[in-house]
# Entry
Amino acid sequence: MIHVNDKNWESEVLQADVPVVVDFFATWCGPCKMQSPILEGLEKDFDTFKIVKCDVDEAPAIADKCKIRVVPTMICFKGGVAGKKHEGMLSREAFITEFEL
# Structure
């Protein structure tokens, strides 16, 4: 899974030709650690979108710009525009429903 930061945010998220779900997380966050395997499984099973991870402690400017106040938070970007946003953990089924994938 790709990790995004200030250097690759634009190319990996804003200029992507498929929808991109950004998983905003922190290494110290227990729920984030539990969410990660669910997202990795989804990424392997679907090729209509991609999932990337953004460590809020390593990319605070991006987290601030996206108004991240809770981790984990997931935001779906389509055509470089932020859309659906979910704060907190999601099961596999809830993720698919929430982000309409």
Notes: The mean pLDDT is 95.
